[in-house]
Design brief:
The complex is a heterodimer of chains A (about 220) and B (about 775). Helices cover about 25% and strands about 25% of the residues of chain A. Chain A contains five helices and eleven strands, in the order βαββαβαββββαβββα. In chain A, the strands form two sheets. A nine-stranded mixed β-sheet of chain A has the order 2-1-3-4-11-10-9-6-7, sandwiched between helices. In chain A, strands 5-8 form a two-stranded antiparallel sheet. The longest helix of chain A has 14 residues. Chain B has about 775 residues and is of the alpha+beta class. Chain B has a domain of about 250 residues: Alpha-Beta Complex (Phosphoribosyl-aminoimidazole Synthetase, Chain A, domain 2). In chain B, the strands form five sheets. In chain B, strands 8-10-7-11-9-12-13 form a seven-stranded mixed β-sheet. In chain B, strands 23-25-22-26-24-27-28 form a seven-stranded mixed β-sheet, with helices on both faces. In chain B, helix 7 packs parallel to helix 8, helix 8 packs parallel to helix 11 and helix 11 runs antiparallel to helix 14. Chain B starts with 6 loop residues before the first helix and ends with a helix. The chains are: A alpha/beta (about 220), B alpha+beta (about 775).
Amino acid sequence: MRIGVVTFPGSLDDTDAARAVRYAGAEPVRLWHADRDLRGVDAVILPGGFSYGDYLRCGAIARFSPVMGELVPAAQAGLPVLGICNGFQILCEAHLLPGALTRNAGLRFIHADVRLTVLNTGTAWTARFAAGQEITVPVKNGEGAFVADEATLDELEQSGRVVVRYSGGAPNGSVRDIAGICNAEGNVVGLMPHPEHAIDPLTGPSDEGLPFFTSAVTAFAGAQL
Amino acid sequence: MSDKDTVEVAARTPEVQQPYKELGLTEDEYQKVRDILGRRPTAAELALYSVMWSEHCSYKSSKVHLRNLAPNADQARYLLAGIGANAGVVDIGQGYAVTFKIESHNHPSFVEPHQGAATGIGGIVRDILAMGARPVAVMDAIRFGPADAHDTARVLPGVVSGISFYGNCLGLPNIGGELAFDPCYSGNPLVNALCVGLMRHDDLKSAVATGTGNKVVLFGSRTGPDGVGGASVLASATFGGAEPGSTAGGAEAGSAAGDDGGRAAKRPSVQVGDPFMEKLLVECCLELFAADVIEGIQDLGAAGVACATTELSAGGDGGMFVDMDAIPLRDPNLTPAEILMSESQERMMAVVRPEHVDAFMAICGKWDVEATVIGEVTGDGLLTMTWRGRTVVQIPPRTAADGPVYQRPLARPDNLDALRASSPDSLARPADGPGLRETLLKLLGSPGLADKRWVTQQYDSLVRGNTVLAMPEDGGLVRVAEETGLGVALATDGNGRYCTLDPYQGTQLALAEAYRNVAMTGAVPVAVTNCLNFGSPEDPAVMWQLAEAVRGLADGCKHLGIPVTGGNVSLYNQTGSTAIQPTPVIGVLGVHDDVRQRLAAGFTADGAEVVLLGRTSPEFGGSAWAGVIHQHLGGLPPAADLDAERQLAILVTAAASAGVLASAHDLSDGGLAIALAEACLYGGRGCAVALRGDSFTALFSESAARALVSVVPGREREFAALAEEHGVPATVLGVTTGDTLTVEGIFQVPLTELERVWTATLPAIFG
């Protein structure tokens, strides 16, 4: 399986996302923001970082980059897409996911290990988890407070589209402790915590983030049968 | 006026009065410039010499002492490039080399904490980049006035947010450093930033302009009016304080000491950082290196274009011509002098063969980095610059790059004998268990020893995915090669209190602690960098402290057989006539053969034997106990025993690779008591220990060359034999167990109480 990792100017965790893909047994394929080309990959990860410096609004410029011109219709057609941190912000800006990410409560950058509960195991990126499974994954962001209007939040909850929730309370002020969500079809998932930094206890708090990546590999293998 | 001040005009008008004093030059130095040129300098040349000959750029007061740091053959074994280059380069095996350096941004961080600290990170990262290395991690060693002091509430959050903003956005993990408080830093905080970079052996780049006809390319951000004179009137002068009109470096220009010590007037001398541009510049440079289209490269830091052009041409074999009209500007009204002195961030200068210019520009275009050919290498040995078609600079570049050298007068401080005579022996000591318990908790909750997460939670320590250890561990540890587990460890340490009592010994203690901290991860210490933070060199007592510190560092490194690969000197750290404590900050780099065998400081499981390594004597001079409990500084610092340090390091690294240790933590500020509390808190596991001899000494002495380890159950005899083999005294104290820190027969503290005391302090002060 080939999983693309997009590099925007200012992407920082792209190498890490590529490493996680490799750990999961797939081939990482580097995609460049300026190319209108997904190189025939089977899934795409939008990594963490500060695309274009995030100077206007996180993800606001990245959504207009040429590669997004290809990615948005592909995602709408079912291509599995995972947005991590800045990637989640870009997915919201591109309207592939509802809501928005705003400044952390407390207005400071927060890096901490957090406990997450995996609520939806029906997505392309979470099938290898058990429903209700608790995992430890780091969060590191300055603008990670998820917000949406009440109707959207209710709809997300009722349709099971809250994929992961902070189990010990959101460190950044996310409404309803929401850490990650998906689209109605479940192929597009965005979350603020960094599962790619929890793939090996040597370099992260745990290896409990790895199933995000192996889930995609499993789903792809299943689809090929 | 200044843009019309050409070389020709200057030759015709020797009588023109020039503002050399306002630019930080002394009368003698100004005369020397006139002698070199055989005429008065133009306004642009005067600007160039003033920044190049500033203390910050020229090291004119410290150079005679720094010569002692040159490594001998034994120390230089693993050096690919030493002092003199932007940063030294160390061979770490498997074809890899690393380069690392620590640098100060003290003065800008006081004037404008956020941008001052942010650009401190940016500057050191470009230094490392200019060596041809990929920057892979940063550290910050920061010191402030008392945590609860009014101005600390302005300076500390600003400095931390600046480091966080710049480092996080640049994508470099922050893997450790220091946070310390002392009243001596109230009017002059210390912000020292370290960067480490990784390269293959043959990637090494040099800062020289060679090959007549080769093009000089300026790339990165445009040049603006920010940071003009940062190196001279800001970094090489004293802040006015209670005493108006402080006399420093002839740099009265900015120090019109108002209520804020001239801070507001100096704010335009602070640069403004754009970490996004720096990230692009990093990736762009690495691609340029890989494409092999660069002959020489230099970062633009202090003294901007003036420094880059003089250093590149002075390092080469010819000269350089620069067309200043080609330099892209953010503000078209800048004069030539301002362009030369501007310290606008995120700029680099490269020397490129004409046939490579197109490829160079294509790579810059890919990364949206603006690049402009501004001149070329010439054969005439001169640095020549034109502006509006007329020559405004024409100098022999080495005369600017080398600068004056001063043998400043030295004098042992008048108060040193009295200070040393004021022994801590007469201070009241806790007499019983409850008293010892209370002392531990007071120390643990003091700002310098309390939990630093308020700060470190703002730093990304994980990005790039190779961080194996980071704060609060003794040393940071970064994986270099995923296949083999090769890694590098880093630690910085400094102790102004010890150095006040004895700068020679105090510097060796800082070296010893950083060396020990690196060894605690299981790495072998191999190289040293340093940032020498001192007061005014015009004060003979300060110069004596500097000379003693450098002598201590030189002797210490020779003794340990490891080289000083580079460093930075920051002088004029004082308020009025009161200097900061002499604060050399020492960084040590270690090589870890296999990071999978790394050791962390915390107790993580029950049933591990707890062992104290090293010898404990009653040593309390400059200790945390004397400072926190009694606000006392006097006597002599602990003895530095570098042979014992080396044996301890060899033992811990051997034990780490044999897999017999479960944890290792060095003993430093607050002695065994604080080390025990930290080991319990980091790992979330208690312990029960018994002490021999005087309990107070056992708990709070700060004798050097000691460590607290816990042993993998079943491997106790093996470890005892290793300790004996290496001649390291090993005292079994007890065992890890439960959720209480128990010192048998003396006191017990539940971990929940330790945690509460330890974590409450900084949030209570900073919100």
